[in-house]
Amino acid sequence: MRINSSENHTGEATGLKEKGLFLPTVLVVVAIIAVAYSNTLTAPFQFDDHLYVIDYNRGKGLGAFWPPSGTRYVTYLSFAINYRLGGLSTLGYHLVNILIHALNSIGVYLLVAGIARTPLLKGRAALTSAIALLSAVLFAAHPVHTEAITYISQRFASLATLFYVYSIVFYLKWRLANGPRQRWFFYLFSIALAVLAQKTKEIAFTLPFMLVFFELTLFERGGYKRRLSALIPFALCLLIIPLTVYGHDLVIWGGDKAVGDEVRNLQLKDLHSISRHDYLLTQFRVLVTYLRLLVLPIGQNLDYDYPMYRSITEPAVFLSLIFIASVFSFGVWLFARSIRKGGGYSALAGLGVIWFFVAISIESSIIPIKDLIFEHRLYLPSVGAALFAATVVFFLKDKFAPGLKTSAFAALAAVMLAAPLGAATYLRNSLWTDEAAIFEDAAKKSPGKERVHYNLAWAYQRKGEKAKAIEHYKETIRLKPDKDKAHYNLAIIYQSTGDRAGALEHFKEAVDISPRNATAWYNMAAIYHDMGDDLGAIESYSEAIRINPGYEDAHFNIAWLYKERGDLKRAEAHLDAVIALDPESADAHYNLAIVYIKSGRPDLAAGELKSALAIDPNYTEAALELSRLERGAR
Questions:
Q1: Backbone angles phi, psi at 165, to 5 degrees
Q2: What number of other Cβ atoms are within 10 A of residue 633's Cβ?
Q3: DSSP per position, 16-33
Q4: 434 with 463: CB under 8 angstroms?
Q5: How far apart are the C-alpha atoms of 294 and 379, rounded to whole Å?
Q6: Do the beta carbons of residue 28 and residue 133 sit within 8 Å?
Q7: Quick one: how far is CA 563 from the chain centroid?
Q8: Positive or negative, the Cα torsion across 242, 282, 353, 330?
């Protein structure tokens, strides 16, 4: 395919100015996104949302996010602000994610339009404004982005893309602006956005390399020393992510209290537990899947059951490597050809391919990640894919229908592509509106993956559909017998239905796998007590307290058992522990008073009963017991 033929047409196409199409682009993009994501505004928290959004913010104030520190700090801060403003209502989180997607789609237009004004392309591709519009439309409508937008936690990807794209947009504005004050504002703002990108997600690490590539290829030759010196601040940004990940012990990066340490610890664990060689080989196959999803977005899956490949001789790996190398080489060839022969279409198409592979390189190369594939990782790379696709569409228009009015063709292409993609996005989003539906879909597509069944069971459990939850917890355990959380949650369900034997069996399995699960020991103790096995209950409560000395309920319950068995000394010790943990526990004061009465210390008992009544004046049992003591004293 000769991408650069018929590229320099003028006529009515030259009238399509950047400013003239900007407002229509904004309106079209906003309309597409508003419709395609209209059914997600109240979609529930899913998957890692419970960890990264709910659990991480519960009990924390905004003060916990100062000073700025830790990996992915900016995204965590945005979640914290959402949490302070709207609590556990998902509406605010979804509105922010949708707004970010809209801004990113507009940013795609500004990026392509800015590239078109650079010396390499200026005047060489007459339809670049229309290409920019279609690129933005494709990016806005594509269903592969639902995971990055509707899945609240993946604001990590979309927000990093926002800073990444706009950093380049403002860099291009700086290079192309005339007024000195305006130029320096664009330059400094571009640097600030680059810093924010690095503190949002690790995919932003490639941003300085992308800027160097743009500077050296899109602009005039010569003066390299001066030009590259302007990129030094961006090059220094490359230190941010390594220092954040590996330098967390430094005070400047937040020490052990750095924001997002959970992610950092998982990243370091993956680096040391997964073979870089195997991960790289597997990513050749993953990249083919990514490209297929971009071209034909069917069979989307929240949690793929993807195999790890270990040899390049495996046909799936070798053929994928050949295909990926061919696509990348084709993109490089197109771009190099455009530099030599001045082809605007070649430059844009080649740039789109190069962008895709540079942007995907952090998560699909030699840096191992436990999860081999996730659709949200396509969000930033698909900027390049959208540019490539839009360029090819207009190249084909110029090739086969050069007389067709560009404005009419642009509108027709936008409708014909956005309509099916937007409809697919809306349908895919409908699965996110129910806690279980997205995992029901994943279970059909990844029936052999234990994590899918576990998350589906957990969703059913939260919805109160216990029979379905039990079914999928059992399937989880069949696939992974040492899944302690599945045993624990299954035991909780059995306990709630009165199946003590079933609950006890799975609590025992849970503590065999994870002996330091204090809550499991506590629940086992409660079951033993209900079964009349007080010794078993005492033993289990004791283990819970050994693991967690501050387990107030365990102290109280074991004290009650000791009191009933006449072991008043141990009962007193545990009630003292409860009061030390919670001085306002009226029940603890009352029961300690009973221990004192039984051990012949009425004066101490009276004091504890008065404390209980001071805390709860309506505590009838305490009032009656105190009255008996006072009558006895008289």
A1: -65, -45
A2: 9
A3: --HHHHHHHHHHHHHHHH
A4: no
A5: 10
A6: yes
A7: 49
A8: positive
Nearest to 69 by CA among 337, 312, 264, 334: 264
Q: Rounded to whole angstroms, how far apart are CA atoms 496 and 608?
A: 35
Which ranges of 17-127 would DSSP assign to H, the alpha helix? 18-36, 49, 56-57, 73-86, 90-116
Domain ranges of the chain: 11-431, 438-633
Q: For residue 20, what pLDDT is reported?
A: 63
Residue recorded with tokens 């017998």: 481
> Global pTM?
0.90
Q: CA 262, CA 514: separation in Å to the nearest integer?
A: 19
- Long-range contacts for 285-288 (Cβ within 8 Å, ≥24 apart)? 285/309, 285/316, 285/317, 285/320, 286/364, 286/372, 286/373, 287/320, 287/324, 287/360, 287/364, 288/320, 288/323, 288/324
Which amino acid is it at 238? L
Question: How far apart are the C-alpha atoms of 143 and 124, rounded to whole Å?
Answer: 32
Write out residues in the chain with pLDDT < 50, as ranges.
1-18, 249-255, 634
What are the C-alpha distances in Å from 461 to residues 295, 449, 458, 466?
37, 19, 5, 6
User: 3-state DSSP helix/strand/coil percent for the chain, to nearest 5?
Assistant: 75, 0, 25
Tokens of 222: 């010569």
Q: Give the pLDDT confidence score for residue 257 in this predicted structure.
A: 62
Rounded CA separation 135/429 (Å)? 22
- Number of residues assigned to the chain: 634
Cα distance between residue 424 and residue 140, in whole Å: 12
Helix axes 586-598, 602-615, angle to 10 degrees: 170
pLDDT tens column, 597-621: 999 999 999 999 999 999 999 999 9
Can you tell me the distance from the alpha carbon of 301 to that of 329, in angstroms, rounded to the nearest whole number?
29
Contact 256, 248 (CB under 8 A): yes
High-pLDDT (> 90) share of the chain, %: 77
For residue 254, the model assigns a pLDDT of: 45
For residue 632, what are its two tokens?
A: 């006895």
CA angle 10–13–15, rounded 5-degree value: 105
Counting Cα atoms < 13 Å in the Cβ hemisphere of 28 gives 28
Q: Which residues contact 336 (CB under 8 A, 6 or more apart)?
A: 350
CATH topology of domain 438-633: 1.25.40
Two tokens, residue 161: 């893309």
